[in-house]
Amino acid sequence: MVKVSVLALRQAAQVQEVQSVEGALEALRKLWKEDEGVRKLLEEAAKEGYVLVDTRHVEPAFTAALKTALAKLRERLGEEKPSTLRVKYDPKRKEERSKPKPMTWESPEGVKYTVEVYDLTPRDREEKYWAYRDTRVEEAAKWVERFLATSEVEEGPSVLEEALEHEGNPHFERDLIPEDLKEDLRVMGWDGTLRNLKTLVDTLPAREKEFKERVRSITALVDRRGEEPEVVAVKTPNGWEVKATSRAVVNAVLSLGLLMEALEEDWRAGEVRRYVEDLKPFVPGLTASLNAIATLRRANYLLDELGRGRRVAVYRDPSTGEPVYRTPVIG
Fold it and tell me: Cystine design at 295: which of 177, 184, 242, 262 (Cβ 3.0–4.6 Å)?
């Protein structure tokens, strides 16, 4: 008596969910075809008798399908008369050398169609065909393998190049700029096009240089919040002379010195913003200049990312070699 673990066969079949006996028979048919160990186990169980174990956590439909398969296998192994299958087997290799002849089906309109064994559902087809290999599927798989083997990787146009090419065409135009960045760019006079954005970003070096020179040229802090402008600090050869000793003025003088030091090296807008905020009441327009630089730096980074070339996989028709499919290579 052979013990057959239903759970082990269920796991080996690798199906997510068994909803019917017919579906389970299909899974067993595939397993029978691909796994020699399973094939030997089921043949031994059909010949010598069997007991099913590990059935508790397996769908009843799968257990029923296994019993059906074993019963049919027992009948087939016990046949003494020649097989009625129209398939010839090599006595040594025991492999199929020809497929069953197709059947025909006539529609209500009188049209006759060719029907292969594989086109029938497990319920309709004769159970003796349940382990038969569908050569059409194998041929299709081989074609797919040949098709995938034709792939070649080449450099394709960047996202930015494609967007510039199709800009103005409503069918292919792509929205690549985040909304918050669009708002900041419109404040600077951006017209909403990628071409204008590239022109605007090209002004970044000049704006950064102008910002530095403006900070260096500050010689006085003037409070314009009152009715009359008031000079609250003046630069002298020996340092700064503070005329109004309020906390805001002192912080502005200190921040100006720190800002000038930061601008001598590679600097980020976020790092120097706190210094500019302290100077805002006394140096008009400095904050607007910094905001423009921060916006253009962000736009410049985005254009650099979008402008990178992409690797594209090209697939060709195996018979003609003609490119028929292109797709970006991820990773």
Answer: 184
Whether 287 contacts 261, CB under 8 Å: no
| pTM to 2 decimal places | 0.50
Nearest to 66 by CA among 24, 38, 19: 24
Rounded CA-CA distance 98/89 in Å is 8
Q: Are 259 and 276 in contact (CB under 8 A)?
A: yes
Helix 247-262 / helix 204-216 crossing angle, nearest 10 deg: 130
Ranges of each domain in the chain: 2-79+94-129, 169-306
Alpha-carbon dihedral 178, 179, 182, 184, rounded to 10 degrees: -110
Short-list 212, 200, 186, CA closest to 302? 200
The structure tokens listed for 168 are: 């103005």
Per residue in 211-267, pLDDT (tens digit) is 999 999 999 999 987 788 899 999 998 889 998 878 999 999 999 999 999 999 999
Distances (CA, A) of 68 to 25, 28, 42: 8, 11, 12
Amino acid at 37: G
Residue 164 identity: L
